[in-house]
Structure formats: structure tokens, C-alpha cells
Amino acid sequence: MGRTSIVEIMGVTSLVFTDPGTPDTRGPLRYLYWLGRRQPRRVLTGTTLSTVWMVLLMVPPYLVSRAIDDGVRARDTGALLGWAGAVLGAGVTLAVLGTLRHRTMTMVRTDGLYRTVRVLTRRVVELGPALPRQVAAGEVVAIGSADIMTISHVLTVFGPGVGAVFGYTAVAVALLGISPLLAAVVLLGVPLLVVSIGPLLRRLQQADARYRGLQGELTARAGDIVAGLRVLCGIGGKDLFAGRYRDRSRVLRAEGYRVGAVTSWIQALAVGMPLVFLAVVTWLAARMAAAHTITVGELVAVYGYVAVLITPVSFLIESADDLGRALVSTRRVLRVLTLTEDIPDHGTRPGPRGQADLHDPVSGVRVPAGSMVALVATRPGDAVAVLDRLGRFTDSAATWGGTPLTEIALDEVRRRILVADNDAYLFAGPVRAVIGGGDVRPALRIAAAEDVVEALPDGLDSVLDDQARTVSGGQRQRLRLARAVHARPDVLLLVEPTSAVDAHTESLIATRLHADRQGRTTVVAATSPQLLARADHVIFLSDGTVAATGSHAELVRTQPRYRGLVLRGDEDVDQHHVVGDLR
Amino acid sequence: MRLPEADRAAVRAASMRLVREDRGAALVVLLLYGLAAAAGLGLPWLVGVLVNRVESGAGVSAVDRLVPAMAGFAVAQLILERSARYAGHRFGERALARLRERFVDRVLALPTAVVEHAGTGDLMTRTTNDVATVGVAMRDAIPEILISSVRALLVAGAAVLLDPVLGLCVLSGTPLIVLTGRWYLRRARTAYLAEGAASSELSEGLAATATGARTVSALRLGEQRVAIGDQAAVTGYHTRVRTLWLRTVLFTMTDVGRYLPVAVTLVVGGLRYHADAIPLGVVVTAALYANQLADPLDTVLERMERLQTAGAAMSRLTGVHGLPLPPAPDPRVPESDVLEVRAARFAYRPGHNVLSDVDLTVRPGERLAVVGPSGAGKTTLARLLAGIDAPDSGQVTVGGVPVATLPAEELRSRIVLVTQEHHVFLGTLRDNLAIAAPGPDDRHGDRHDDDAFRKALATVDAVWVAELPDGLDTVLGAGGIALDAAQEQQLALARVVLLDPHTVILDEATALLDPATARHAERALGAALHGRTVIAIAHRLRTARDADRIVVMRDGRITEVGTHPELVAANGAYAELWRAQTGTA
């Protein structure tokens, strides 16, 4: 047990506590080579073990043949016991070698698997906002679930591959010792046999791909039914969906029959063809035995060799297939690894000390140091664009305390300026950690999210899943706000932080947020009158540029379009659409 | 509420049912497997016969006479093996299709309240992952286990028939394999489940980091995400070491169990040959059988772990069948469109009343707004009114009949609840509307409904429909056109228009939309609601202001009822909220 744990610790150390290294991203083969080079000793051990194991597989048939010839037929009990003991000894050796081989290979795969994930995670983190701009997140998700497995799997092709070649050679030598004719038949016949299944394998792959496609579609359909089950319960259409599902299920079943037709041939041939071949070889060998060219023991040995030879040859064929699929998967991984950041981080100047004015030349928005400013835009996207520029999620000429944001180190910008989106991601974990750790109660109070936590079974220790799917939309929004407030950045840029919150709660949040941000810079893109009324001043953007600035009350009085936008339903023409029809 | 899992007996009964329903085919499959395995015994036996002939000095021609038999056995095994596998595969596909269709039917038959309370997450896992797991087992693991079991039995049987003493020798490795197998299987399921869970944790962590990449950057969570990923790798590593340890024991012992009987058979067979008890051919054949027994036993052990996992999945699938069916519908037909709540009380957890002593009469055609702070019980009231839940005590009736007991179709032709959660189904726009207008044969998309669909879309101001590439045939959702939130809302409302209920309950229907979008959606709402009774749960009081009556709720009770001017004049909770919202404090 003691040894196991030392091995384990060493394994973990090399796997996780060290830097995963810088991958070679110049091509899929280079990447795979790099993964192998990270663990040279393990790969070498694996190759050696595989080779020895494969060669030794040929030993038992030989020992059995000697036991029969020298022990049984020669009526020599001592030799019989000796050779039978050797069979058992070889068996135990093979068992141990085979297991060690499997263990080493599993470790090679594990290393490759986790190294790839760790390299990917680090790259994704570095890319940050550049990632969603360049690839769909779904692509990375697919890599994380399927591709990494394929890649790790192929890492163990090399060792056994070498072993298979040696194994094949060993049989060739053994057979040549018995009869050149048999050697020729077996050595040429076995590869032909395996290759002959090739075309069927391709057909199977095609049928299987169709089947998987249909299966995925059917699963998606079932998932869709469950996801929309509330709608189906409320609106109806259950029979419609049940019928559709059944139709598609029958199509899949029919496709399954087609896959079965091919698979069953392959499985039967995989067993049957070697048997036919074995029958031929046995017949040839038996004729030689009858003519006393070879012994009975050798006849049995030939039978054993043919059976054993199928292992390395099928392995080589499978490997070619594995390698093909692994290259495709590796290309997908490399696509993410080779993406480039689109917000260059060349800044060297320090940011302003303490609070400072923010300026966005594109829109003309100016945010005085330490104040709370609200942004109202005729097009909602415009306010968000301003915040993205001020928070440097897009590069622009925006300045902070007169220094262009592009000249300040990105890390400082991120540390001191926080853009809090309404659809920001909530990562899984205990509530306390989701909010940011430490004493999160004040932030929860400001976001009026105390009741969200109280309703959870273990309070702050309750574990939320990714995107906090178990709580309602309004509750999620308040958790996001609490997280942003808890970060206490010098500049907080908020996007519609209370759109899903009821009026009473919104009023609490507006008051508490204003008090909390006293003396620090805050910009809120919002249309809620309560938030607007609390802001030190409001900037009204029309078509992306500043149209008016003033207090909420002033703008309501002087700007009809502003009034229309923020007091909709109260004094606006839209009132007739919304409430007029309600009347 | 958690969805139940079925016990072993129920799982066994459900599995047996799948076999029983296709009994004839099952018997044929077993028979073919048996014949194929029997044919596989022929060649080692013939090798023994050959050895005997060679030993007795028979010439080459005696060997040649066995050629037809050898070829016959090999070809027979090939063909039997193929037929058996194919029949087995078809049997598995049929059973799997029945299983998944029945499961989806059952999911669709779940009472609304169960769906609402259990959520769809667990159900989703069962529908997708568990069905797939059982499917893999049915297609691969179960046939392999069956074939290998039959083969092992026949090899053992043939060896005993050949020579009882050598038969026992052939079986000498079996106890080792069986005991190790038991040891392994007792631990395998937990260990492999842990490994699987760690793998999904790892890929979900990476998925979250990728999906939330922008947030990672904004909140500087990079190091934390890397640490979480590394931690998942450590966990994963330990689970893999654990399963590797299990395989270390299993593989070593089964390999020893493969060679041990060969050695034993050689020694015992050799000694008996020396004693002239048996011919040499029998020794050879027995040694070959001894070597042949290990493979099927290995296969059984390795696949058993899959079968265990499939058993767990099956118990989750079968568990859903144990859920209640919707109550027998009330045969009474509502006499009027009047919705009445009498002394209603409701609790999700016993002792924690969410609604207490609620009395309310909704007059046909009126516009009723329900306001109050979060947690006041507004949504629960909406669910009782919509018939999703029945009150624990008291009554919620429409035209004198309890709402929750109305048959589903009857209910939705009268009362429809619209929430902020929408769903666009995979399929065409027409499919998405057809659910609200089930025709006699709408599985194939009835064309004569198209006019009604277009009218409903026009009613809710869905002008974007005109820009869709294929009109009503445009594919929506994944792989098709993605609708934005407001368009989804309009689609939901168009369904309401098609259903044409007399009462619509809106639960914060536009709350999650951004203001500009909400404005558009609310416009559509106005049109969709024309001429109906409307109960609007609102957090924006402006929606409430112009309602015919406003119901103010707090702590599960109705505290105030009246028109906007009345309530403002009353200077109660509503007036306070109103001042807070409009900033006229």
C-alpha cells in the first residue's frame, strides 16, 4: 500500500502541480509528439513492456507443443511436469507483464488527457472575451467531452505498435523453424485476413455514422420535449410530439437493423475467418505431421501461433483507424490553442491614482470621478457599447484620468474597472464563493439578495450549479449584482442590473447601491426610473452619442424622447398600446 | 421534489417485460447463439481426432478425409454466428425502441404539477443519458454477455463430455476467475461511476470556462478557473487510479486463470495417457478447450460492469413509470367563465404556508392586476388559478368546477398561463404553432391551418415572420433560425391566440426582456389579450395602474383590493409602492 501511494503522489505531482508546459501547436502530429515527449520514461517503459509482452505471447504455444512431444508422447513424467510448469510460469509472467503494460499505458493516456485539458483551460482563460468572438462556446464543449478522449487514446498506439511488429516477427521466426511453407501461409494469410475485413469496416463506419446522427437527433428531440414540457402541459400538443417521437424512433430502429446487418457480418467474420484459416493451416500441418515432417506437438503449436498472431495484426489495423480520428480531434484542439487575443496588452503606463474621470470620445460620454452616472440610450446596444469601451472590452480611444486605456496594463484595468453584464456567467460553487468569498453579507444586502440565500437549504454554503439554474431569473440577476458590488472595483459599470426585479426590491437596491458606491465611480446603463432618480446625473444617448445630460427630473421635464423612453406606460403614447388594450 | 428510482424487483420486472413481449425472437436468438457456440467446439475436437489418426500411423489420405468436416465446422460457425448476432441485434433494437417510446409517452403523461415541482433537469438526464446508457447495453453488452455465457457453458460441457476428469481440469481456472470477478464487480460500479462523474466535472468545468470566458476576464477569475480545472484533474486522476487498481487485480488473476487450466490439463491428461486411459487426441483437445474457456469468461466480467451501469439507468427510467398519473378528470362542465378562489391555503412544504385564506372572484372580462413584493405568493396564486396545483384546503373553481380537476384540453381552452419562460421547439414555425391547434392529422402539418397561424402571428404583431426564408416552414432553434427573446414571447402569445381561452394569466411575462424589447412584446400582448379576462402578475406598477382592479398581496394573503385611485387614496402598501416606483416620494 505504501508503494502505491508514493507512486500516486508522484503521478499527481507530475500531472497537476507542475506547469503543463507550452504545447507545440504547429500541427496535430507535432502536438501528439509533444504530449509523448512530456512523459518520455513512461512512454519508453510502455513500449518495452508492450514489446516483451507481445513476443512472450508466442511462448505458451511453444511450451505446450514441447509438453506434448517431450512429456506426453515421450511418456516422460519429469519432462511433462517441467514443461507444464513452464506453461504456468509463462502464464504468470504474461499476466504480470500484461497488467504492468496496461497500467503504464493508462497512465500515459491519463497524462495526455489532463495535460490537454489543462493547456486548453489556460488558453481559454488567456483568450477571455476574444474566445466567444472567434468560436462558438459549443465547439470547446465538444472538445472537452469527446475529443480529449480520442487524443489520449491514440497516445498508446506507439508502444503496442512497436510490440506488434516484434510479435509478428517472433511468430515468423518460430514458424520458419517448423516449416517454411506454413510460415509463408500464416505470415501472408493473417494480414490478408485482417485487411479483407477493411471494406466492411468502412461500410460499418458509414452506417454507424448515420445511426449516430439519427440517434443524436432523436435524443435532441426527447430533450426538446422535456425542455418544453411546461409549455406542452400548459398549451397542449403532447399527442403531436409523442407521435413525432415514435415516427423518428421507428426510423432509428430501421437504421439500427442496417447497422446490425453489417456489424453482425464483421463480428462473425472476425471469429469465423480466422477459423476457416485455422482449419486450412491445421489441415496442412496435420498432413505434415502424418508424413512425419513435423511432430504432433508442433501441429498444436502452429494452431496456437495462428490464434495468437491475430492479436498484433488486428491491433495494427485498429491503430491506423484510431490515428485518423485522433488527428481530426487534435486539429479541433489546436484551433482553440492557436486563436489570438484581440485586445492586445501592451500597456505600460500606470493607471490614475484613486478616482479619476472616464471619457469615451466615440459617444462623448464623460463620467466625473467618484460619481454615479446613469446611461439611457434610444438603442439599448449603444449604452452597452459605451460600457464595453470604458471597461476595455473593445479597444478605443477611451481615457481614464486622461491616460488612454490602451496604454494601461490590461491587468490593472480589469482589477480596477469592472463591467458587470446582465448575462454575465455564474460559475458553479457554494453561494459564498460564487459572490466572491469572504464576508459577502453586505453585498447581498445591497443587491437585496438576502432572501435568495435564505431560501436555499444550506444558506451561504448551498452549492449552485453553473449559471445558477436552480434559482429564478430575478434571483440570478441579484446574485450577479451582489458579486459585482462585492468586488468593490474603483469603477463599476453595470448593465440593466434590476430589469427582472420587482418595484419594491428595485427601490431598495437603488438606495443601497447609491450609498455603497459613494465616493467611487459607477455607471449604470438602465431605464428604470428608480435607478435613474438615484444617479448623480443622467446621460441621454441618441443614436450612440450624447444628446442631453442632467438629473433625471430635469431630463423628464426637458426631453420628451427621454420621458417616452423611461416613463413608458405612464405618460407615453405607448400607454394606449399597453394598458389601453388592457382596459 | 426528487424523481423516484425503481427498486430491483421493478427493474427486473420491466426488463423481463421487454423480453417477454418479443418471446419468440428471444428464443430464436438464444438457440442460434447456442448453435454457433457448439460449432466453435468442432475444430479443437477435430484437432484431437487428427492427432489420434496421425499417432495411429494413418497416412495423409486419412488426414484429407477430415477436410470436409473441418471446413464444415468453420463455415457453419461463421454463418451461425452471423445469424445469431444479427437476430440479437434486431431484437435489441426493437426492445430499445419500445423502451424509449414508452418512456417518452410516460414523460408526456406526467401531471403538470409533477413536472413543475420536480423541474426538468433530472428528467432531462433520464431522457437523454439514461436512455442512451441502456441503449448501449442492449446493443453491445447484453448480447456479448449472452454469447459469451453460452460459449463458456458449452466449452465446459464439451470438456466434461470428452473426459470427465479432464473436464474438471479445464474448469480448474474458473474458481479463480469467478472469485476475482465477484470481488471486482462489487467495487466496479461505484468506482466507474466516480470516474464518469469526475470526467463530466472536468468537461463541464472547461465548458463553463469557455462559455463564461468574458466573465472570467471581467472578474479576473482566470486563476480560480485554472485552479478548479486542475482540482478536477486531481479528482479525476484519483478515480482513474482507483479503477486501474481494480483492473490490475482483475486482469492479472484472469490471465493466470487462463494458463493455469492448460498446465493442469497437460499434466493430468499426460499422466492418464501414460496410464493408457485416454488417447493423445483427447489430451490435445482438452488443452485447447482449457485455453478457450478464459476468453468468454473475461468478456462476461468486463461487460458486467456496463450492465451494472445500465441497471442503474434502467432503475431511473423505470422510476418515472412509478410516478402518479394525472387524476381522473372531472366529468362536470363549468357552467360559466367565473373564476373563484375560496379560503385557499397552499404550502410547498408542510407548515410553510405560501398562501393563506385567499378569497377572490375574477369577473369575466375584467382586467385584474396582482402586485406585491417578491415572496408574497403571487406566482403561487397564478398556478392555482391556472390549475397547475390544487389548494391544500379551500377551493379554486371555474364555473363551479375545481380548476385542477378539469381535463387538460378542457382547461387550456378556458385558462392559459403565460410566464417568462418560453420554449421554441425544434422544428418549423408551423410545428411550433400547431401544438396550440391540434388538428385531426397534424403530424404531417395540415395546410388548412396556415391561415389561422398567419392570422395569429399578425395579431401579435410578429412582422418578422414575413422576412423568414421559408415562411411557416422555416426551421427554428438549433440548426435553424434563432429567435430573440421578444420574438419568442410573440410566438408564445400567438399560441395563446390560437388556443382562444377566455382567461389569460400573465406571470411577469415580459420581466426578463430588456426595456425596448419589452415594449414591443407588451404591444403584442395588448392585441393578444383583446376581449379576454386578464389576470396580470406585475412587478411594474404601470401595468397595474390601468387595470379594472388591483389585488395587493403580502405574506401569502390579499391585503388590499381596489382600483388605482382607490388604493392610492387608501394610503396603504400599494400607495407606498407606487410612490417608490414613480419616484414621487
TrEMBL record, chain A:
GO molecular-function term, one example from the UniProt record: ABC-type oligopeptide transporter activity
Keywords in alphabetical order: Membrane, Transmembrane, Transmembrane helix
PROSITE patterns linked to this entry: ABC_TM1F, ABC_TRANSPORTER_1, ABC_TRANSPORTER_2
Localization per Swiss-Prot or TrEMBL: Cell membrane
Gene3D superfamilies in the cross-refs: ABC transporter type 1, transmembrane domain (1.20.1560.10), P-loop containing nucleotide triphosphate hydrolases (3.40.50.300)
InterPro entries: ABC1_TM_dom (IPR011527), ABC1_TM_sf (IPR036640), ABC_transporter-like_ATP-bd (IPR003439), ABC_transporter-like_CS (IPR017871), P-loop_NTPase (IPR027417), Type_1_exporter (IPR039421)
Superkingdom of this protein's organism: Bacteria
SUPFAM superfamilies per UniProt: ABC transporter transmembrane region (SSF90123), P-loop containing nucleoside triphosphate hydrolases (SSF52540)
Domain ABC transporter: 318-568
Main location: membrane
Membrane topology: Multi-pass membrane protein
Pfam families, per the entry: ABC_membrane, ABC_tran
Domain ABC transmembrane type-1: 44-325
Transmembrane portions of the chain: 43-60, 80-100, 154-175, 181-201, 265-286, 298-317
GO cellular component assignments: plasma membrane
Protein name: ABC-type multidrug transport system fused ATPase/permease subunit
TrEMBL record, chain B:
TM region positions: 25-47
SUPFAM superfamilies: ABC transporter transmembrane region, P-loop containing nucleoside triphosphate hydrolases
Residues of the ABC transporter domain: 333-580
Domain of life of the source: Bacteria
Boundaries of every ABC transmembrane type-1 domain copy: 27-309
Membrane-protein topology: Multi-pass membrane protein
InterPro entries attached to this UniProt entry: AAA+_ATPase, ABC1_TM_dom, ABC1_TM_sf, ABC_transporter-like_ATP-bd, P-loop_NTPase, Type_1_exporter
GO cellular component annotations of the record: plasma membrane
Protein source organism: Labedaea rhizosphaerae
SMART domains: AAA (SM00382)
Sorted UniProt keywords: ATP-binding, Cell inner membrane, Cell membrane, Membrane, Nucleotide-binding, Transmembrane, Transmembrane helix, Transport
Principal cellular location given in the protein's record: membrane
Localization, UniProt: Cell membrane
PANTHER family assigned to the protein according to its UniProt record, in alphabetical order: ATP-BINDING CASSETTE SUB-FAMILY B MEMBER 10, MITOCHONDRIAL, ATP-DEPENDENT PERMEASE MDL1, MITOCHONDRIAL
MF annotations from Gene Ontology: ABC-type oligopeptide transporter activity; ATP binding; ATP hydrolysis activity
Stated name of the protein: ATP-binding cassette subfamily C protein
